[in-house]
Amino acid sequence: MSALPFIDTSIFVRHLAGDHPDHSPRATAYVLQLQAGEFSVRTANTVVFETVFVSERFYRRTREQIRAALLPLLTLSNMVLPERDQIIATLNLYVAHPPLWFADCYHVALMKHLDLSEIVTYDQGFDRLPELIRIES
Questions:
Q1: Which helix (H) or strand (E) holds 124?
Q2: What's the rounded Cα separation, in Å, for the pair 40 and 80?
Q3: Is the pTM of this model over 0.85?
Q4: How many independent structural domains does the chain possess?
Q5: Residue 4 DSSP label
Q6: Do 17 and 24 meet the contact criterion of CB atoms below 8 Å apart?
Q7: Are 43 and 6 in contact (CB under 8 A)?
Q8: Which among 56, 58, 46, 47 is positioned nearest to 98, based on CA atoms?
Q9: Given this model, what pLDDT does residue 61 score?
Q10: What is the pLDDT of residue 99?
């Protein structure tokens, strides 16, 4: 059995943005085949991070729009994504707690997964989450 191909950020971004005359239709066709279960792929948490960043910063998508666009892709059974549950939890925290950056939401989701409640940080944004205890060094 051959290794699964790795799907990069550019495929997601071009599919979601639909703004490139050549790449966007090709990316969408690829994603539709993926959604139809014609093949499987592998991706990484960093691809999701980059897709969120580009969608928010360059395309000015709202957090709700980003989550709505990514969830159907990230939940595909034929897409291997490490820490899928934490990434989905991160997207939900990202929508629920707008002051926090996506990376901070990931840290919170990971902490919950690891059953941790204390975070050592100067970032006061974490104070908005009553389940966390923020500690300054």
A1: none
A2: 8
A3: yes
A4: 2
A5: P
A6: yes
A7: yes
A8: 56
A9: 97
A10: 86
**Is residue 76 located within the same domain as residue 114?**
no
What is the rounded distance in angstroms from the CA atom of residue 40 to the CA atom of residue 79? 6
Long-range contacts: 116-125, Cβ < 8 Å, 24+?
125/99, 125/100
Please return the burial class of 50, using the count of CB atoms within 10 Å of its CB with bins 0-12, 13-18 and 19+: middle
Q: 66: phi > 0 → left, psi -120 to 50 → alpha, else beta; which?
A: alpha
**Both tokens assigned to 74:** 């990230």
Residues belonging to the chain: 137
Residues 15 and 67 in one domain: yes
* Max CA distance (Å), the chain: 51
| Dihedral sign of CA atoms 13, 16, 17, 19 in order | positive
Low-confidence spans in the chain with pLDDT less than 50 = none
| Domain range for 133 | 98-137
Residue 44: CB atoms within 10 Å: 17
Provide, for the chain, the percentages of residues in helix, strand and coil under a 3-state DSSP scheme, each rounded to the nearest 5. Answer: 55, 10, 35
